[in-house]
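User: My advisor asked me to double-check a structure prediction for Small hydrophobic membrane protein before group meeting. I don't want to rely on an old file, so could you generate it fresh from this sequence?
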Amino acid sequence: MSLVVLLLGMGILMGAAAHTSLAVFTVLAAAIAAWLLGFAVREGIARRHR
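Assistant: Sure, here is a fresh prediction for Small hydrophobic membrane protein from the sequence you gave:
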């Protein structure tokens, strides 16, 4: 069931990305990448302290 929800979410996001300009898409992609990088760094620091 979660795979179906994941695929549905990806379809919605890709459809939304197709209707935005390249500049907006690039800015949003960079923001998501920065958020994921920050999350990975935070998790890495938390694992070292355990």
